[in-house]
Design goal:
Blueprint (H helix, E strand, L loop, with lengths): L2 E5 L3 H12 L3 E5 L3 H20 L5 H9 L1 E4 L4 H4 L4 E4 L5 H14 L5 E4 L6 H5 L8 E6 L8 E6 L5 H13 L3 E6 L6 H4 L1 H12 L5 H10 L7 H8 L1 H14 L10 H8 L12 E2 L6 E2 L12 H14 L6 H23 L5 H12 L5 H8 L1 H12 L11 H4 L2
Parallel strand pairs: 1-2, 1-4, 2-3, 4-5, 5-6, 7-8
Antiparallel strand pairs: 6-7, 9-10
Helix pairs in contact: 1-2, 9-15, 11-12, 14-15, 14-18, 15-17, 15-18, 17-18
C-alpha cells in the first residue's frame, strides 16, 4: 500500500496526511474548501520544520514528505482513482459521511479499502451508504494524529477481516499501537472513559467536592496525568459532550451514560474550555483557577460503606486518601473499571486491547482490567455493590466479570 487519500483537511485529516507522508506514502488530501487545504499544507510544513529543528527529522526527509502531499477539492477519478486506502476525516455528521463514501465507492478502485475516522458514530451505519460494506472499516486516530500513539481499528459486522488486519498492520508501520474493536457505541476508549468524566460531574453536582479537588484526587491518588475537568477543558466541553450524548443515545440511554446538566449549561453559554479561555477553569491568568463554584453539601457514609471504600482505595494505591477523597476516587475509578468489564463481557475487544487502548489513548496510569485484577475482583465487586445501594438508578451494578465471582 503506497497511495492514500484523506478526505477532510481539518485538524485530524491534516494530521493523518502529515503522518502518512512522513512514512513514505503518497497522499492526496481532499477538501471542498481551498482555504482549508492551504492552511493544512502550511500547518504540516510548520510541523515538519519543528521536527527538523528538534532533530527528529532530516531536512531532506522533510522536503520529500512535503512533496508527497498533493491536494484536490473534489472526490473524482483524478483525486482517488489510484488510492489503495481512503480515510474520511470530516465532522461527526452521519449523512455527510455517507455521501462521501458513496462518492468514494464510485471513484476509488474496487480493491481500495474505505475507512472512517469517526470517534463515536456506528461504522455499520456509515457503511449502509455503499453497495459493498465489506470494504468499509473504522480507523479512529486520536488528536493530534502524528503524536498520539493509538489507533482503534473498528470491525463492523460486514467488514472484511482481511481489510481490518491490513489496516492494523498499516497503523503499526506508521509507528502506532493498533487495537481492534467491534463496532459498538464509543468503541473502546470513548466508552470506557465515560465514567471518568460523568462521575466527576455528578460528584460536583452533588456538592461532594469542587472542580480542583476532584482533579487533584485523581492525579495525586490515582496517578492520572490530568484530572477529568482539566481534560474536558483541554478536549473541549462541546466535543466531550457530543461524544457523551452519542454514546448515551446509542446505548439505549442507560443512566450511567447520561450527559450531565452542568456540562450542558456550560456548552450553551459558550464556555468550552481552553479554546474559549473559560470552562471548568478560567485561563485568563498565569495559572488556571476554578471557574465553577461548588454548592458544597454535607454527607455521611454509613460505616460499612466507609470501610469498603477504605479497602478499595488502599488496594488501588490511594493509601493516604481521606474519607471524602476515598469516595471521589472509588466512584470515578469504579465506574471506569466496571465499564471496562462490560466491554469485555460484550466482547468489544480483548482484555489486552482494552487495557492498551486506555493507556495509549487516554494516558491512564494502568489498564483498567489489570488494575481491577490488582485491587481484587471481589473487592471491586463489593465496592460497586455498596455504591449501587446508595443510588436509585442502578448505575454501579457490576458487570458480569465482577458480579459472577
Amino acid at each position: 500500500m503506497e497511495r492514500i487519500a484523506v478526505i477532510g483537511a481539518g485538524t485530524m485529516g491534516s494530521g493523518i496526511a502529515q503522518l502518512a507522508a512522513a512514512h513514505g506514502y503518497e497522499v492526496r488530501l481532499i477538501d471542498v474548501n481551498r482555504t482549508v487545504l492551504d492552511n493544512a499544507q502550511a500547518t504540516i510544513g510548520r510541523n515538519y520544520d519543528r521536527a527538523v529543528e528538534k532533530g527528529r527529522m532530516a531536512a531532506g526527509d522533510r522536503d520529500a514528505a512535503l512533496s508527497r502531499i498533493t491536494t484536490a477539492e473534489s472526490i473524482d477519478a483524478g483525486s482517488v482513482g489510484e488510492a489503495e486506502l481512503a480515510i474520511e476525516a470530516v465532522i461527526e455528521d452521519l449523512h455527510l459521511k455517507q455521501r462521501i463514501f458513496k462518492s468514494l465507492e464510485q471513484y476509488a478502485p474496487p480493491s481500495a479499502t474505505l475507512a472512517t475516522n469517526t470517534s463515536s458514530l456506528p461504522v455499520g451505519r456509515i457503511a449502509e451508504a455503499v453497495s459493498d460494506p465489506s470494504r468499509l472499516i473504522g480507523m479512529h486516530f486520536f488528536n493530534p494524529a502524528p503524536l498520539m500513539p493509538l489507533v482503534e481499528i473498528i470491525a463492523a459486522e460486514k467488514s472484511d477481516p482481511a481489510r481490518v488486519a491490513a489496516a492494523s498492520e498499516l497503523a503499526r508501520q506508521w509507528d502506532k499501537v493498533a487495537v481492534i474493536a467491534r463496532d459498538t457505541p464509543g468503541f473502546i476508549v470513548n466508552r470506557v472513559a465515560r465514567g471518568f468524566y460523568l462521575e466527576a460531574l455528578r460528584l460536583l453536582g452533588e456538592g461532594v467536592a469542587g472542580v480542583d479537588e476532584i482533579d487533584q484526587v485523581m492525579k495525586s491518588h490515582g496517578g492520572f496525568r490530568m484530572g477529568p475537568f482539566e481534560l474536558m477543558d483541554l478536549v473541549g466541553l462541546d466535543v466531550n459532550l457530543a461524544v457523551s450524548t452519542s454514546v448515551w443515545e446509542q446505548m439505549d440511554k442507560k443512566t450511567r451514560f447520561a450527559p450531565h446538566e452542568i456540562q450542558q449549561k456550560l456548552v450553551t453559554e459558550g464556555r468550552l474550555g481552553r479554546k474559549t479561555g473559560r470552562g471548568f477553569y478560567d485561563y485568563s491568568r498565569d495559572h488556571p483557577i476554578p471557574a465553577l463554584s461548588v454548592d458544597r453539601r454535607s454527607f455521611a457514609l454509613n460505616p460499612k460503606l466507609s470501610d469498603t471504600l477504605q479497602v478499595f482505595a488502599g488496594r488501588a494505591g490511594a493509601t493516604s486518601a481521606s474519607g471524602t477523597e476515598q469516595l471521589v476516587f472509588a466512584r470515578i475509578l469504579g465506574a471506569i473499571l466496571n465499564e471496562a468489564g462490560f466491554a469485555l463481557d460484550e466482547q468489544v475487544a480483548s482484555a489486552e486491547d482494552i487495557d492498551t487502548a486506555m493507556i495509549k489513548g487516554t494516558n491512564y496510569p494502568k489498564g483498567p482490567l489489570a488494575w481491577g485484577g490488582e485491587i481484587g475482583q471481589r473487592t471491586v465487586r463489593g465496592t460497586l455493590r455498596a455504591l449501587n445501594e446508595t443510588v436509585s438508578d442502578g448505575r454501579y451494578a457490576p458487570a458480569d466479570r465482577f458480579a459472577d465471582i
